[in-house]
Amino acid sequence: MPLVVEFAAQEPEWLARWWAEVLGWTMVGETEVRPDGPGVPLRFVPASEPKSRQNDVHLDLRSESHGDQTHLVERLFNHGARFADIGQSTEVPWVVMADVEGNELCVLEPRKAYAFTGPLAAVVVETTDPREQARAWAEQLDYDIIAEHGEFASLRPPTGEGPYLEFLHNEEPHPGMLRPLSH
Length: 183
Known about the structure:
Blueprint: E1 3-9, H1 12-23, E2 26-28, E3 32-34, E4 42-46, E5 57-61, H2 66-78, E6 82-83, E7 95-98, E8 104-107, E9 120-127, H3 130-141, E10 144-149, E11 152-156, E12 164-169, E13 178-180
Parallel strand pairs: 1-4, 5-8, 9-12
Antiparallel strand pairs: 1-13, 2-3, 3-4, 5-9, 6-7, 7-8, 10-11, 11-12
């Protein structure tokens, strides 16, 4: 069963168009964005209330080189994304940003592990039990468990293409927006 990532948005159509433009993906209807190659669909649904805290699901964007990482950060910034502080160390090699509605994302430094993911390196989920969640999602999606250690677990589609699904420990995760895609 495929995967879709949902984001609650104040203006779902506008946010979907924004992500389609920055990722170079295709709009499907007014509120869904799909990759032309490896990736997972992004769906934007009306928010019941304004965003007031960090999401428990965020996207990690892939870069091919340090220059590409810088270019991607500049492109996102020029499209309205802003730098974000989620308590990360100033020494991390990735750049934390937020889209135009405040949804957190990371622009990763080049990593060989993400070579065949497409522009989206990983969908990252914060949970109280990363290994338990990874096992449950692996079974539901028929993904391979790539890593399980400490407070981290990682899954990958069996084709070896497309983004990783990664789980990080958080004692107080917020309601999730990760869904199996039914169509």
